[in-house]
């Protein structure tokens, strides 16, 4: 496992959203109500980018087909076509004045 720095705390705010590509991982860092989440950045249904998705409460809504995922757990909450797997969620690591992630490489 290797540590990857994502963002300095000073740059984070509620509504923050940024996509990262680290090796084969496509990730999106979000901050909502003071809490930070790191999830995969493409919908597992058809790989549509979630960077422009809406947030409804604690659910991320895919703009392509309206699939809804729980931001905290990644669980699929609603689907409009066939069901798909849950979103992958990643544990964030606090280090010094930044947030990052440990990933296999």
TrEMBL record:
Pfam families: Rieske. The keyword Lyase does not apply. This is Rieske (2Fe-2S) protein. It comes from Zhongshania arctica. CDD domains: Rieske (cd03467). Coiled coil: none annotated. Keywords: 2Fe-2S, Iron, Iron-sulfur, Metal-binding. SUPFAM superfamilies: ISP domain. Residues 33-101 form the Rieske domain. The lineage of its organism: Bacteria, Pseudomonadati, Pseudomonadota, Gammaproteobacteria, Cellvibrionales.
